Each structure stands twice: as C-alpha cells, then as structure tokens.
Amino acid sequence: MQKVISLVLMLLLLTLPVFSQASESEIVIPVIDDVLKVHIPDNEALRFVSQIKVGWNLGNTFDAHRDGFTGDEMTIEKYWCGCYTTPEVFETLKAQGFNAVRIPVSWHNHVDKDFNVSTQWLDRVQEVVDYAISQDMFVILNAHHDTHKDFFYPDSEHFDQSYRFITTVWSQVADRFKDYDHKLILESINEPRLAGTNVEWWFNTSDKRILDAADCLNRLNQAFVDTVRATGGNNADRYLMVPGYAASADGCRCEYFTLPTDTVENHIIVSVHAYTPYPFALEMPGVKTFDAETQESMNDIVYFMNQLHTRYISQGVPVIIGEFGALSKNNLQDRVDFTAYYVANATARGIPCFWWDNHAFKGNGELFGLLDRVNLTIPYPEIVDALMQYSGITGVGQ
Question: How many CA atoms lie within 13 A of 112 on its CB side?
Fold first, then answer.
C-alpha cells in the first residue's frame, strides 16, 4: 500500500511525456521535457561521476565462460559473441558519443587452484582496457560470472573461500592497474546472489538466507576495498564500485546494505542494475509497448530512481546504473521511447547509465546489441540518439 501511495504522489508531480505515434518506417525520439527536478549536492564524488555521460557494456566477451573447458583459454573471449575485440570497437563507440565502457570479466576460468590469475588472460584484458583508455574513455572493470560455490558465493558456508577468492584475484588485478589514472573504476563483483536458489533474484528479507547473504556481501565488499587500497599507487584513492544483493535496487536501498569503510572519504560508488520495467525490458515475450498509456511502467522507473536519489545522491554518494536496456521485440519505437524516458530520469538525478550490449544485433539474435562489432555499424541508431540526447550529449553520431 505504501508503494501505491508513493506512486500516486509522484504522478501528481509529473505530467505525461509526449511519445510520438510514428509509423514503422519513421522512428522519432520523444520529447521528454517534464522530468521532476531534484537537488544534486555539489561534492568531489558527484562531480567525478557527472563526467560519465553514457556508457556501454562489452558484454558476452571477457565475461564468457565454459566450466570444465580444457582448451586454449584465450578463445573464450569469442566463445559467446563470435569475435575478438578490436581497437576500432572503441573508436566507433567514441564517435557515437559514448564516453565510458564497462568491461565485464569472468576470472574463475583463468585461475589455478590457488586463484592465481593466468598472465596471458590478464595481459589480454589489459590490452583491451588500453583500447578504451586510448580513446579517453572511462572504464569500469569488474569480476563478472564468478558467483559459484567453488569461487564467490555470499553465504556463511562459503564465506572463507569467497573471501580468499575475491582478495586473491583483486590483489593481482588491482596491482596490474594501480598506475592507471582515475578514469579506471574497479567494481567488486557482478550481481552477487545465492545462485541456484528460489531467492536468487528475490531480495526477500523474511528469508534468513537473504539476511545472511546481505551480511556476507557487506563483508566481502569491505574485503574488496581493503585489498584494492593495499596495492597502493592510484588505487589508494581510486573510485570503487560495490553492489548490493544481485546488484538490484532493492538490494542496496535497504537497511541491510552498508557501504564499506574506507581510507579515503567518499570514493565508493553504489552499483545498480535495473532492467525496469521487467515485463518490457527483460521478459520474453513480456510486454512490447512503452507509451503514455503504460503509466505503471513509467512509475516503476521513477520510483526506484527516486529511492536511489533519496538514499544516496541526496547524501552526496554517487550511483551508477551499470546495466540497463530493453530486449528487441520488433518494437523499435517503444524501445526508443523507453530509452529516452529512462535516461532522462536518471540524468536528472545524477545517475549515469550503461547499456548492456551482448553483441546480438539486428539479424543476429535481435536482443540488446547496439553495435555490430564485426562491421562496426550501428543497427539501431535511433536508440543511440536517444541515449545521447537525454544524457546531455549532442552533436555526435549524426
């Protein structure tokens, strides 16, 4: 009931955005000029994050894994996406207006029994990070599909092993990048959760397993921060990202999530993933439409962003939405409308957004992809234009 009341109150503050009634051959960007204005404090951390306008994920690439694989580990980079990453990928992104990339990396297929990272794998990750850095882009580097009971699993039973995994891996990765400037951001772990359980994606605080997971995750995030800081160099005050349970908005906006203590003031960024509204953005077949009549969908976006602003941004703590997007359902105009509304609201609250791109593009899966990495083309330029316009970037990618 409280959520319903909150949504009604927000509706009183908002008027409907003007979504276009375009034909299939005419896709236009809607006018979103009535987003609720909120106060964003002025401090060093929020000024730093405000430089990140709009980001893109190098998905299905270094995060790809094949458990039990005994072949050449270096081929896993193209196992899911079908191609290796080239410098031209980042040149194309920069030309389109993206000024930040997130590089997800699964490490568990590239460590020995003592969690020592393969040198050739780390070399290749660094090489691709350098591709982005050479374009003067912000880079988020993380640990991705490592949430497994043999590696990182946030419960008491597996805590000691998880602690050893995250501290051992990050001590090596952080040391390799300690001389990079602050445009490199390190992120502790992707979507940490109780994988394989009925609460894997449900932050149910009435379940003791969830409360235990939240507590373990707080301590593992702390271990990540302590480990990175101990490597010295620019890591002594580098900005670091940490998620709540499953990187969900629910997992970080509650009392059970706490920010790590740090040796430097306010250099922790809250990491959130939000494919919201779920029926439109991620569910198949789900819902195809996103328009002025789909008011509940817009309410869901405003609601969780307001919650993040209230808990963090208004208190001077930065937030980044490291993953968002909408599956293609032969509904391009609706996806453009969604993108414009989502990014306009996030930008108004000081929250940069990173589109998830799994290299499944027009004619190759029809999923999230915005960049054909082989041909270096943009299958859906209208979505990219909406991203740029409502993140405050103009005059590029035209």
Answer: 4
- Measured distance CA(123)–CA(184) in Å, rounded: 16
CA distances (Å), 143 to each of 42, 199, 326, in order? Answer: 31, 22, 23
Distance CA 219, CA 331 (A): 43
Of 25, 13, 120, nearest to 74 by C-alpha is 120
Catalytic residue chosen out of the listed positions 77, 187, 191, 382:
191
pLDDT value for 294: 64
Q: Which of 77, 187, 323, 382 is catalytic?
A: 323
Q: Can you say whether the dihedral through the CA atoms of 230, 236, 237, 240 is positive or negative?
A: negative
* Cβ within 8 Å of residue 263, ≥6 positions away: 229, 236
Question: Is 323 one of the catalytic residues?
Answer: yes
pLDDT greater at residue 165 or residue 3: 165
Measured between alpha carbons, how far is 16 from 298 in angstroms, rounded to an integer? 9
CA dist 125 and 180 (Å) reads 14
**Residue type for 65, please?**
H
User: What residue type is 3 in one-letter code?
Assistant: K
Catalytic residue among 65, 144, 145, 309: 144
How many other CB atoms are found less than 10 A from the CB of residue 113?
5
pLDDT tens-digit map of 170-186:
999 999 999 999 999 99
Over 90: is that where the pLDDT of 210 sits? yes
Torsion of CA 369, 373, 374, 377, to 10 degrees: 70
> What is the longest distance spanned by two Cα atoms in the chain?
59
